[in-house]
TrEMBL record, chain B:
The keyword Ligase belongs to this UniProt entry's keyword annotation: no
Source taxon at top rank: Bacteria
Transmembrane segments: none
Gene3D superfamilies given in the database record: Bacterial phosphonate metabolism protein PhnH
Protein name: Alpha-D-ribose 1-methylphosphonate 5-triphosphate synthase subunit PhnH
Top-level class of the enzyme under EC nomenclature: transferase
Keyword Oxidoreductase: no
Any single GO BP term: organic phosphonate metabolic process
Keyword field: Transferase
Pfam family for this entry, one: PhnH
EC annotation from Swiss-Prot or TrEMBL: 2.7.8.37
One Gene Ontology term of the molecular function aspect: alpha-D-ribose 1-methylphosphonate 5-triphosphate synthase activity
Length: 292, 190
């Protein structure tokens, strides 16, 4: 029995290496991550492994998390802002089982936050690492289907296709056409997909104190945004990027600043708006209760 | 043969987190978990970096002595290469440093193939010395490095000028390390 087995929580499954992946795979992913950090926003191919859940359920994010995770970490997993959805619960239980790490739903307590399509409302800190699950890492894929060609466009820094697309959206409908997955320029060099986070979250990538790692399992790509790095949503001087939020207050906590989900409540057009970030909403409700 | 990490799984994880933090926050000095025994000529941080990153897939160049070479081959299986230009990892312990311009810098479409130079230096200190700016640094970090060639800042400027191609450097002193990703700009004297 190795020393690492002794340090794991008692209910850790002894049939797996720490954090599931074998050490050679972790080394390969770790080397890729270091290069991704050194070249902010540049997509790097990696040998994505089969994971015990299907592509599209966060295999890229899980492999990144498994490669950086240590026994001292506290892991939070969110799916569209919520800690209690199937994907988030399954991934949290997976890492508790194969790595014995502490898990949490509190943003403030987490050292690693794996996310599907949101960035928490609470400002991140230098001690935190975000891991994004990415379905399609190539920001140009709807404009140029040939990957060999998109690689060349990234090498040349030629993003005119994306600018023309944005121009056409504005010319036709008066504003940019993407409410999520709106492409960003990283460190003034690479055009990057922020993963399908709402445009509302794009500004949180800019000069964040936290390290941001992106893993795409099916597409086998890893990329990163280091802390305190310029991340600018693609826009024009006379049509600046505007993050959009539903013009309502959260029905549960009353927040007028958080990103809201629209929930249909009946078949007569009834609807309500609540925070997408469940931890943030719970904190607000507690604070409100304490104040009363 | 000297042993490797006490715990090959968790010590490598700790070593990687130190490297990841160093690369993400250039100029901040990180601490590694040292291997319990070290071959002649290798200090803890450089040895831990090799054990963390090297394996059969990483052609490695080193100017370290015979014992260190045998130790690296035994513990990592990394193929040793004679030419610095054909290496993916370089472990540099001697007085002379291979010129950054001669190392593999990747290509425009594949800049990630640029080499990683692990240079053992005599001292690292935060707060004075080179002024570093760029991704990972809120305003500026200062890093004093003892034991690199006098023309290192000039070499670094040439390296940074060909971004996104380039070489990344890990500076190791004793059990501590700091990193210079190719994206960072370096100026001498505050």
């Amino acid at each position: 029995m190795t020393a690492s087995a002794h340090m794991q929580a008692p209910d850790t499954d002894p049939g797996y290496n720490f954090a599931y992946l074998d050490e050679a795979t972790k080394r390969m992913i770790r080397r890729t991550l270091l290069k991704a950090i050194a070249i902010p926003g540049h997509q790097i191919p990696f040998g994505a492994r089969e994971m015990p859940l299907p592509y599209g359920w966060g295999t890229g994010g899980i492999q990144v998390t498994a490669s950086i995770l240590g026994p001292d970490d506290t892991l939070k997993v969110i799916d569209q802002g919520a800690d209690d959805t199937t994907n988030a619960v399954s991934i949290r239980r997976f890492f508790h089982r194969v790595a014995g790490v502490r898990t949490t739903t509190r943003t403030a307590e987490a050292t690693i936050i794996q996310t599907r399509h949101r960035i928490p409302e609470r400002p991140l800190t230098e001690g935190q690492v975000m891991v994004f699950q990415v379905p399609m890492p190539e920001p140009l894929f709807k404009l140029e289907p040939r990957l060999a060609e998109t690689r060349r466009l990234h090498a040349l820094g030629d993003y005119s296709l994306a600018q023309v697309k944005l121009y056409e959206d504005i010319a036709r409908q008066g504003e940019g056409g993407s409410s999520y997955s709106h492409p960003v320029m990283v460190n003034h060099r690479y055009l990057m997909s922020p993963s399908p986070i709402p445009g509302f979250d794009n500004p949180k990538l800019h000069m964040s104190p936290a390290l941001m790692l992106f893993g795409a399992g099916r597409e086998k790509k890893i990329y990163a945004v280091p802390p305190y790095t310029s991340v600018v949503s693609l826009d024009f001087d006379d049509h600046p990027f505007r993050p959009v939020r539903a013009p309502h207050a959260c029905a549960a906590c009353g927040s007028t600043t958080s990103y809201l989900d629209e929930i249909v409540t009946d078949d007569r057009g009834g609807r309500m708006f609540v925070c997408s970030d469940t931890d943030h909403c719970a904190e607000n409700q507690m604070a409100r209760k304490a104040a009363e | 043969m000297k042993t490797g990490f006490t715990d090959p799984v968790l010590d490598a994880q700790a070593g990687f987190r130190a490297l990841m933090q160093a690369m993400a926050r250039p100029g901040r000095v990180q601490q590694v978990i040292p291997p319990p025994e070290l071959p002649a000529g290798l200090e803890a941080a450089a040895a831990a970096t090799i054990l963390t990153l090297a394996d059969a897939e990483t052609p490695l160049w080193t100017d370290a002595g015979e014992e260190a070479r045998a130790w690296i081959t035994f513990h990592t299986g990394a193929p040793l290469v004679a030419e610095p230009a054909s290496a993916m990892l370089l472990l540099n312990t001697g007085a002379t440093m291979p010129a950054l311009a001669t190392l593999h810098a990747g290509e425009d479409e594949t800049p990630q193939d640029g080499a990683t130079l692990i240079r053992q230096v005599t001292g690292l200190a935060e707060g004075s010395g080179w002024r570093l700016t760029g991704p990972g640094i809120e305003r500026e970090h200062h890093l004093a490095v003892m034991g690199v060639p006098g023309d290192f800042p000039a070499q670094w400027r040439a390296n940074a000028a060909r971004f996104p191609r380039g070489v990344d450097v890990v500076l190791c002193a004793g059990g501590r390390l700091a990193a210079l990703p190719r994206s960072v700009a370096l100026r001498e004297g505050g």
